[in-house]
Write a structure and sequence with these properties.
The protein is of the alpha/beta class. The chain contains five helices and seven strands; from the N terminus they run βββαβαβαβαβα.
């Protein structure tokens, strides 16, 4: 966003940064459940906050305590990626055991979170990536299968993996030119 390359354009003056982690230095008198010195991360309940900096003012309702062994980077990145995956896969798609989910941009933070979320509920995550160079890493991250969309035919591979039935769910964090192929690779009726 800062460089002007984001799909969302900042309206100046802009407050950049929605992912943050740090230590509480002070808080207002009406805040309960938090203490000075506690390690916290921002939860993206309140997008548009300006956390891009060394010090930030955050509403207490947007803070989540983090464990002492979690790095600042992991703590800051967790909520946006896993919140996106959870909302799409669980809240909206109601992903469950045995279902096959196609995950675009599988090596992105949201894609990796989607793989882990799908595995946690017993689903079969199929990671989609442009080339096979990231296949091993995606399998190690928990993908049941990897399809390299520039090297393999997406529809044919999904049909092969699902016994011709197609995938029940698509988690597409990218949109764009693969939409038609993703639609072709899904089941015509969901059980």
């Amino acid at each position: 966003m800062r460089s002007g390359k984001s799909a969302t354009k900042a309206t100046l003056p802009a407050q950049l940064g929605v992912e943050a982690a740090g230590v509480i230095e002070a808080f207002g008198s009406d805040v309960d459940g938090l203490a000075v010195g506690e390690r916290v991360a921002s939860h993206p309940r309140d997008l548009g906050r300006g956390y891009y900096g060394e010090v930030a003012l955050a509403p207490a309702r947007t803070l989540v305590k983090i464990p002492p062994n979690q790095s600042w980077q992991d703590a800051a990145a967790t909520w946006m990626a896993f919140g996106t995956a959870w909302a799409g896969l669980i809240d909206i798609a109601r992903l469950s055991t045995g279902r096959t989910v196609l995950i675009t941009a599988a090596s992105s933070s949201a894609g990796l979170a989607a793989i882990q979320t799908a595995r946690k509920v017993g689903a079969n995550p199929v990671a989609l990536t442009r080339t096979s160079t990231k296949a091993t890493a995606l399998l190690e991250a928990g993908a049941a299968h990897v399809i390299a969309t520039e090297e393999q035919d997406l529809v044919t591979e999904v049909a092969r993996l699902t016994g011709g039935k197609g995938a029940e769910v698509v988690f597409d964090a990218v949109g764009g030119p693969t939409f038609e192929k993703l639609a072709e690779a899904t089941r015509s009726e969901v059980c």
